Amino acid sequence: MDSSVLLDVRDLRAHFFSDEGTVRAVDGVDFQIMKGETLGVVGESGCGKSVTAQSILQILPKNGKIISGEINLSTNGTTVDLAKMKPTGQEIRKIRGKEISMMFQEPMTCLSPVHTIGNQIDEAIRLHRNANKKEAREITVEMLQRCGIPEPDRRADAYPHELSGGMRQRAMIAMALCCRPKLLIADEPTTALDVTTQAQILDLLKELQHEIDTSIMMITHNLGVVAELADHAIVMYLGKVVEHATSEMIFKDPKHPYTRALLKSIPKLGRKSKERLLSIEGSVPNPYELPNGCKFHPRCPDMIPGVCDVHEPELLSVEQGHGVSCFLHSDQPGREPSV
After folding, report:
1. Is 89 exposed, middle or buried (0-12, 13-18, 19+ CB in 10 A)?
2. What is the sign, positive or negative, of the torsion defined by CA atoms of 292, 294, 299, 302?
3. What are the pLDDT digits (tens) for 82-100?
4. Domain range spanning residue 92?
5. Do residue 203 and residue 276 come from a single domain?
6. In angstroms, how far is the first alpha carbon of the chain from the final one?
7. 108-132: b or e for each residue (b if 16 or more CB lie within 10 Å)?
8. Is 243 within a domain?
9. What is the DSSP letter of 96?
């Protein structure tokens, strides 16, 4: 693996099994995260963004399982495949929180309501940094201060419900970065916050990223967040990567019809108040009854009859650093849909 690559995900497939059938939540995903860079992961709800993150950390729900693929992490001069590790094994436990940490979507549901903020951060520090109780407390207070929390000594003894939404999110950042991880997975970290607090949180993440020299996998619906933070971006739809490129390429020259539709649906300054926002026609298909061929073809304005509804496109490079999974940019007939 290239020395500049921190995480290399290859043909990752994660499925959920239930009495109704099998959901292919992640269905052959490929991407790389470079050292010190930020990767934006974009897509509608249900496209597999969070499941991809859960697969990396091996924290899938009980009915979920990694079926195949590789998740290669570069650590301490060696490469390890996280997909081959047992979800409850010691190997992955040593990586969670230390090498890779995660900020979840809603801090109020992720923080323990019966433990103080300080106790929860202390636990991670004592587990992964071999610090005693006093040292862990000092590191906790320092991290809370660096994350912009006033009176960090007092806030460390507060319970999550005693903090505002913005303060809880800052506490989550402190917890995620207290062990100086190589990779931070941020799953919709600004969803429930007002725009002013969102901007503060994003600025804080950028600042701490440079201080700690960590990479970030930013999962978001908000393309503005991608423009602000990400160096590269992947666009997902129904468990597949349909486009990947630098953030600049995604905004300047989107290739996939789905990516173009997402960009067109962004509100623009100067739009007349009575004009309706553009939206993507149709809805995400039932995960138990996926269409044949390209999964986006029932909603695609550029669908090619006899091609898009029959064959499944592959992710191919259309120019240096820009890949797209679409027959509009390929002469290949694709492959028959998988059963």
Report:
1. exposed
2. negative
3. 999 999 999 999 999 999 9
4. 1-99+187-288
5. yes
6. 32
7. eebbeeeebbbbbbbbbbbbbeebe
8. yes
9. B
Q: Scan for tokens 């298909």, then name that residue.
A: 285
Which residues neighbour 4 within 8 Å (Cβ) at sequence distance 6 or greater?
34, 35
Domain shared by 159 and 233, yes or no: no
How far apart CA 226 and CA 247 sit, in angstroms, is 7
Tens-digit pLDDT profile for residues 229-277: 899 999 999 999 999 999 999 999 999 999 999 988 877 766 665 667 6
Angle between helix 165-177 and helix 117-128 axes, rounded to 10 deg = 10
Distance CA(184)–CA(217), nearest Å, equals 6
Asked if 66 and 192 sit in the same domain, the reply is yes
Count of residues making up the chain = 339
In a domain, 200, yes or no: yes
Tokens of 191: 């969803």
- Rounded to two decimals, the pTM is 0.89
Of 267, 288, 309, which residue constitutes the final position of a domain? Answer: 288
Listed in sequence order, the DSSP H helices in 29-178 are 49-57, 90-95, 107-110, 117-128, 133-146, 152-155, 165-177
